[in-house]
Amino acid sequence: MLVKVIGTVEEIGQVQQITDKMRKQDIVVRCEQSQYPDYIKCEAVNVTIDKLKQLRVGDYVTLSCFLSGRKVIKKDTGTPMYFTTVKISTIENDSINE
Question: Which parts of the chain sit beneath pLDDT 50?
């Protein structure tokens, strides 16, 4: 599922080396589309990380992201756990365009 995340860059995390071939970097975007702001953590993987280099905290951005989720059953209790991933596809730095 493709979603747009629009808002201000709140935080840019460090690049993490997950495996020999996979790197990941998180970014938090503050979205103020309602009375209370939402803080959405998105992740950039491999080549998308290079696109984050243009961003600074405070920049206004539009991110196109793939939203996915998975279910894992805990071995010890048999209860389900759910995980959601917001993976960045494209980045528009609207602060540059102003």
Answer: none
